[in-house]
Design brief:
This protein has 239 residues and is α/β, with parallel strands linked by helices. The protein contains nine helices and twelve strands. It has helices spanning 17-24, 39-49, 60-66, 72-77, 96-105, 121-132, 144-148, 210-226, 232-238, and strands at 4-9, 30-35, 52-55, 69-70, 82-86, 89-93, 113-117, 136-141, 154-156, 167-170, 188-191, 206-208. The strands form two sheets. It has a six-stranded mixed β-sheet, sandwiched between helices. Strands 9-8-7-10-11-12 form a six-stranded parallel β-sheet. The chain starts with a strand and ends with a helix. The model has no long low-confidence stretch (mean pLDDT 95).
Amino acid sequence: MTRRFALIGHPVAGSLSPRMIAAAYGGRYTYDLLDFERFEDAWQAFLAGYYGINVTAPFKQDAYARVDALSEKARATGAVNLVVPCAEGFMGHNTDVDGVLMALQESGEAFAKALVVGTGGAARAAVYAARALGCEVSVCGRSLEKASALGCPSFTFSEAQSLKPDLVIYTLPGRVEVPEGLPFAGATVLEAEYRIPRLEALPCRRYISGRRWMIWQAAAGYRLFTGEEPNVQEMLRAL
């Protein structure tokens, strides 16, 4: 039987994932968008008809709590964005980490001080990846309590204005207004959002689109789904 895959979250309309997996494997796999307001409804839809799922906001922590086993990256970040079967039941992975690492490594730059903007699942992946690259990492968010929970020096948006990072990883959703005064000007900026990017026109040293993050996390995920190497060049063309 052909394996079927899906993305669960809310909202998921407009996701490029179906187009990319079709390109990655020449249309051999089915990939659906499952939009539910409640995690339980999304999870039951997964169990009813799919081999593996990607997980997006707001369900990454719900999936983390539901799976039976965790990859090292998922355990370290406290968030799951991909679920596949395993001997114990279901294994949770975090391929957002792979997306951040590859997007930054392909830039050819080295970074010393990173500022992660946001406190959700994508921010947790960004912290892990920036540390793996040897960065000193700080986090800023609307809530100082939530920022502190990521285990780094933490700041409110206004407090972060005085920082001087050479890398900013911006994880706030596109529907959220960009906080004023964040220290983009002297930094390379990687934006997680690719559907409604907010930072493309802001002055910074270098801008890296969320599509780079998205393409590399998708490629890592599709390997886990299928056991096959995806055609990344075709995925890029599909975007």
